[in-house]
Structures are given as C-alpha cells and as structure tokens.
C-alpha cells in the first residue's frame, strides 16, 4: 500500500490535474462549445434517428452508449462521490462539476479520434481505442514503432485500470455494503459476482451490449427517482448546501464531527480525481466501447459520447453528493467517547500506537464495528486513524491501527466515529430519510452498477490484450479477470484511503497515456468535427430516418 501511495503521488500531482482541465477548456473553445451539440444532436442520434444497419459495426448507438456508461455510471457515482466528500469536503462536488462540463468536450474529441482510426478488418466486430489511434496516426508521421510502443503502454495501463478501478473497486464496495447491511460473507459476494460477470463477458460485445442496454437505463432511473424523492424532502436546505459547496471549493472547510477538514487543494484534488474516475473523461477508455458502434460517421459517435459526463457527473454524481450533504452524515457527530485520552506509545522512530481504549456511550448491534478517531500528526496534518471496537464483558473497547509520525500524535477531540466507507456512506445518507431506503436501494444499485461496470471494464481489458498479443490469450485474461473479482473481497482493503489508492493507480496510468494521445492528435478530430457540423447545418442529414 505504501508503494501504491508513492506511485499515486506522482500520477496525481497538481500539474496533471491542471493539464486535464486545460485540455477540456482547449477542446471546448476549439470546437465551438461541442457540449451544446452533444445535448441537442446527441440525443436523436442515440434514439436511432441516424441508425443504418448497413454501416460497419456490431451494436447500435444506444447500445454503445449503454456499454460505455455501464463503465462510468457505477459505484464511482455512489461510492466515489462519498469518498470525494469525506476526504475533500463539500467543495469536491464543485470540482466534479467542472470536470463534468469540460469532460464532455474531451469525450467528444477522444471518441471521434478513435472512430477515425478504428480497425475494420472485421466490419461486424470493429476494434478501436487510443491504442489504434497511436498505431496508425504515428505511422502516418513515419513513426510506426513509436506509435506501437505508446499504444502498447496504453494497453498495459488499461489492463491495470480494468483490474483495479474497473473490477476490484466495484467488488469491494458491493461486498462491504452487502456484508454491512445483510451480513453476507464477503467471499460469497465475490463468488457470485465472479460467476455472473463471467457468463456475460465470455459472450463478447454483442451480449455485453444487450445486457448493459437493459441494466443501465433501469438502474439509472430507479436511483435518480429515489434520489429526487429524498431531495424533495430536504428541499428547504438545498440553497444553503449549494452555497456551502461553492464556498468550500475555494476556502478551507472547517474540521468538525467525522470530517477531518479540507483545503481548496484537497477539495480540488479529490473532486477532480473521483470525477475523472467516474466519468473517464480524458482516459480514452470509453472510446473502446464506442468503436463497436454501427456508423460510418466518426463525429456522430463522438457527439453521442459527449452525453456520458453530463449524465454521469452532472446528474447522477450531483444527486449522490446533495443527498450526502443534506443528510449531514459526511460530518456526523461522534458515536462514542474516550473519557480519558491515553498517551501514544512510541514503537519506532516513526510509528506510534494506542493501547486498547475503553469507549463510553457507544451502541452497536455487531460484536466488531469499524471506527476511526481524528488525530494531528507532523506539520499539523489532521488524519483519520482507523480501528475497530470489540464488545466484551467489560463493555466496548477500541483497537486502533498504528500511526506514522515523527512526533507524538495528538487527539483533535475525544470522539469516536463509526467508519462508513464508499457506498456504505451513501447508503447511510439515504437511511436518514427512511431506515430501509439506503439499505435496500444502495445495495441493489451497488450490485447492478458493479456488475455492469465490471463487464464493460472487462471488455476494455480484453481489447487491450487483443492489441498486445494479436488476439491470443483473451480467454486466459477473462478467467483471470473474473477471479480478480473474487480476490477483491478477501479483506485486504479496509479503509476509504486504501480503496481510493487502489483505484487511483489504474486511473492515473490510463489518464496520462490516454490524454497524451488525445492531445497529440486531437487536431485531426477537431477538423473532422467542424466538417461534420457544417454538413449537419447544411441539412445534409435531414432526410435520415430510423431504419429497420
């Protein structure tokens, strides 16, 4: 985990986030606000107005969008938003909106580019993505080896990302929320997920498209209706919540209750990072799914793809964020107290530990409950120290993890807080309206969203394997991928920071490689985009009607 954290500090420094934001702004201006076209022209394209069964491809526009969105609209919208707010504060939601708006432009360009260079050796099963763009676009410049190298690096990053953020993040969240609310063994959850995913991904893109085109719309509608219901009940608090979001995006958020405090930098970091993970803007991965669409107009599918960040981030993530903030669970009051604060014991030059601590005023229906306390370490940094409470004959006692610090840590206060991680925090927020709402809604949504995301990410990894090994090893990859779903529920991830670290590594690797390809050759997609818009404005496609 320490190695992963060190890698993430390199992948996710401030400069990387600024480049992503600048790229989104660049393509927004360069395209003449292509977000408008995504919202106006993208919808009729998705609904089939321009479908032509004779066009090359395996699935229609709606199925391609559903497959890509099954990867983006998932537990990142439920668990990822919760992580962003719990670690970055309310301002993180504002920076998620920023990524959502400019991410629409990134999606349009990267998918258009992928459609221009997709492999049509088999017109009924095309393959595409940034790796094919790199291979062919560099070859046009007389640099075929460089293109193959960069494309191969992107594939390696995609495989890592599919296993971590696309698979293990999902499985861990489902196992955690199902175990927390229903007591199911985590390994049982992992086994069920593995078998279910395997039955779908082995069937290929056509089966994936059919399954996701059913799961994604149904689950989105169900989740949004339930979310809208909760927000209507809390409508009086929404104006103050929006003010808090805007203020917290540019000013430090005061540490209180379960929240350990956040700066503008932390709000921006966590908001943008989780939004990029959720929407996949700039990563280029969703272009792999869109490349299977039936169309002979590259820009048309790019415009459809622009709808993804709007639905994913500006709608679904916003609903989740507002529910968490309106419920107050992000900075809930203490669930127990340490009446006599003990001294930290030094066990090495940088490691400190607490003896077992008696906890007062704590109620738990479980014999073992995950909790945390807030302590200050070197340079005044306020962190969470996780542990667990064990109920014994003498009452409740807490056992906390070691703390890394050069100097003795100090307690912020004597509060002990129940630890809600990822999707479990969102479920807890829904439960503030009705005790049963979060338990059933989030658990059901977690299962379906996770299954659809794992399926789509498995397809991305499969296409990366195909590119690297010329079609060999795909079955081995699928079997290993399904087994990784099971492994994720073994229990080696225990906190929200560990969960974030695992998913962030894969996302960061894909982002750096995918965004580099888009920035290098985005001008080609921009030219193609403007040509298409001119033809659209001239009425060239006015006679297009849905075709059987």
Q: How would you sum up this structure, described in words?
A:
It is a single chain. This protein is of the alpha+beta class and 548 residues long. The protein has two domains: 442 residues, Amino acid/polyamine transporter I, CATH 1.20.1740.10; 78 residues. The chain is 64% helix and 8% strand. Strands 1, 4, 5, 6, 7, 9 and 10 form a seven-stranded antiparallel sheet that branches. Strands 2-3-8 form a three-stranded antiparallel sheet, with no helix packed on it. It is globular, with a radius of gyration of 24 Å. The model has no long low-confidence stretch (mean pLDDT 87).
The radius of gyration is 24 Å
Quaternary status: single chain
Identify the CATH architecture of the largest domain: Up-down Bundle
Q: How many domains comprise the coordinates?
A: 2
CATH class of the largest domain: Mainly Alpha
Helix-strand topology string: HHHHHHHHHHHHHHHHEEEEEEEEEEHHHH
Key terms for this structure?
single chain; 548 residues; alpha+beta; Amino acid/polyamine transporter I; 2 domains; seven-stranded antiparallel sheet; three-stranded antiparallel sheet; 20 helices
Topology (SSEs and partners):
Blueprint: H1 2-11, H2 14-31, H3 34-40, H4 42-46, H5 61-72, H6 75-88, H7 91-116, H8 130-140, H9 144-182, H10 186-201, H11 205-233, H12 238-250, H13 264-279, H14 286-290, H15 298-305, H16 307-327, E1 336-337, E2 345-346, E3 351-353, E4 357-359, E5 368-376, E6 382-392, E7 395-400, E8 403-404, E9 410-411, E10 415-418, H17 423-431, H18 437-469, H19 474-487, H20 496-537
Antiparallel strand pairs: 1-10, 2-3, 3-8, 4-7, 5-6, 5-9, 5-10, 6-7
Helix pairs in contact: 1-20, 2-7, 2-20, 3-15, 5-11, 5-18, 6-13, 6-16, 6-17, 7-12, 7-13, 7-15, 7-16, 7-20, 8-9, 8-20, 9-10, 9-18, 9-19, 9-20, 10-18, 10-19, 11-16, 11-18, 16-17, 17-18, 18-19
